[in-house]
Structure to design on (228 residues):
């Protein structure tokens, strides 16, 4: 069964350091999402890609966060510099284009701890 | 402003009982209402979803009830089992624009054997 892959699964870093997360969506899924999930809360969308284009990054803290999906397949989310408040689970999800399906498939997430 | 409010925050049910989780939304442009199930250490997985043109959808032991006028929808888990113990999230998305999904804060369900 096809799955969304994410790495690393866990990341511990010190504040002011740079961190990067990688996501490989299900083959053929044109839409890719990055979510942040703080403990005890639901996922919050950070950025949404349609192929290689950003279609929604309204909640992305652009002063420290960046995301790219250069070839419209895998994607990287970067935080520089990391802050204590960035400790959370970072989830990647993918889906077919909205006109074909609403279902989002989530990866296992990257648990980030900022010390 | 939270657009999707979920309750209760936690729920304990005996095996064989009915689990009910409720959500309320504000944006009348929402046109897709999924429920996700999340186990510890895993990403959320789609459980069941409904569109506002129907009032109920059932898949096995899981049923969504939808009340468009009240802007509320709920998840019912019949014959709850210990394996259903997980965190459940409701969500809502709109066909306008990119179709961004907004999630509730989750309900932690514990089914006691």
């Amino acid at each position: 069964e096809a799955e969304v892959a994410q790495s690393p699964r866990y990341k511990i870093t010190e504040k002011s350091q740079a961190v990067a997360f990688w996501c490989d969506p299900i083959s053929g899924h044109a839409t890719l999402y990055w979510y942040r999930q703080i403990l005890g809360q639901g996922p919050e969308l950070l950025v949404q890609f349609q192929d290689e284009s950003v279609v929604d990054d309204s909640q992305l803290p652009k002063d420290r966060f960046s995301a790219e999906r250069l070839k419209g397949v895998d994607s990287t989310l970067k935080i520089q510099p990391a802050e204590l408040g960035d400790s959370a689970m970072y989830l990647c999800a993918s889906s077919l284009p909205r006109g074909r399906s609403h279902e989002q498939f989530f990866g296992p997430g990257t648990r980030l701890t900022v010390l | 402003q939270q657009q999707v409010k979920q309750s209760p925050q936690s729920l304990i049910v005996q095996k064989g009982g009915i689990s009910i989780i409720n959500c309320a939304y504000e944006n009348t442009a929402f046109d897709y209402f999924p429920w996700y199930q999340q186990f510890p250490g895993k990403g959320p997985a789609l459980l069941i979803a409904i569109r506002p043109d129907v009032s109920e959808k059932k898949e096995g032991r899981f049923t969504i009830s939808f009340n468009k006028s009240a802007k509320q929808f709920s998840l019912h888990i019949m014959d709850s089992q210990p394996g259903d113990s997980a965190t459940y999230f409701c969500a809502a998305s709109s066909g306008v624009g990119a179709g961004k999904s907004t999630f509730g804060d989750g309900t932690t369900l514990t089914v006691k054997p």
